Amino acid sequence: MQVSIPADSTAAAAQARTQNLKKAASACFIGNFVEWFDYAAYGYLATVIAVVFFPTENALVGLMSAYAVFALSFMVRPVGGVFWGYIGDKYGRRPALSWSILIMTMSTVCIALLPGYASIGYAAPVALLLLRLVQGFSASGEYAGASAFLAEYAPKHQRGFYTSLVPASTSAGLLLGSLMVAGMYAFMSSEHLHEWGWRIPFLLAAPLGLIGRYIRLRLQETPEFAAQQAAHVEKNTPIFELFKHHRKAMLIAFCVACLNAVAFYMILSYMPTYLSTELGMGKTESFVSATLSLLTYIGFIFFMGKLSDKFGRKTMLITASIVFIAATVPLFSALQGAGFWAIVAIQIAFGFMLAMNDGSLPALLSELFPTDVRYSGFAFTFNCANALLGGTAPLFATWLIQQSGSAMAPAWYLIAIAGVSLLALFSIKKLH
User: Fold this and answer.
1) Does the chain have fewer CB atoms within 10 Å around its N or its C terminus?
2) Which residues contact 325 (CB under 8 A, 6 or more apart)?
3) Which residues belong to any copy of the Major facilitator superfamily (MFS) profile domain (predicted)?
């Protein structure tokens, strides 16, 4: 005998799922926004932080020291990926996301209150490094967790669009960071900026992070995770399951994530410093140009997410890799001697290329792994790529320029990484 389900019950269930999806989108947006606002503030204020925590007669050495701390904070991210993946796959996406944002917020505020080298000597850079390590540990659960959460909540035909909210939130954090730092350079004296002004962006993490945690604590688990829990299927620790049954998927995910890792930090975080230190552009102008390009990049992200729902993640990401290989050197060459608006146009072009990759990546990485190891698989591979290649991108780009004597060195590095991603994408046979 068939049991009919009242239409109003079906409609109510659909409405409840839509409301939960909206709450999930808001919570994921705020968390990633806070994380990348902090990373933007650190990257854009690297020359100031270098003076406050690493005083030296050689400005390049100080800058590279600041970038080294930036890079080292990424080294702990694979460990964090294993930890948060375990929490997310065993106990739920919600507790992992709510605790990760709290730890991130606390460590960021502590950086804002940290005395500089002039006050406590070598203890200052050591404390900065330790706090950045805590940040890296907590941040390792954000991008992957938010992407998996939205992928499991969204209708399959809109999964690309909804998961594109995650990279959009990261770029929104970068945008606010760029706006704030540009305003600080424009309206604050160098003395005030070095004394206390650099602390302001880090202090803002407190209210934003607490709001994000409040929202996340009131989320419901995703339907896919709830169904898995209801089945009571006992499995090994997620990371062991991954290495036992999903090694190929892990290798593909790592290689594909490498392009995002390098391109994201090189184009959106390192570029203002590159323009000012290598091409002689004024700091205010370099940040303003980054801000203008970020505005268009955010719009591109959602557009690319929708295209990935129509044409497929693999097709979009292959296209992005090919475009990076073909266009990176010409665009970097065009930066040499270009005027302000030409530089803005070039950065918008880079943003379009990056959005083509980033708008499709979260959905693809979520679909490479089944529900029971999705959080762990995404978090571990994505964070390994960012630890090895993402966090080191500004430092490695600066080192390449110093060693080669060519301002074009970062472009060739980006092309090599795009080639690795392209080969990995061609090997994908199945998505979940």
Assistant:
1) N
2) 415, 418, 419, 422
3) 24-432
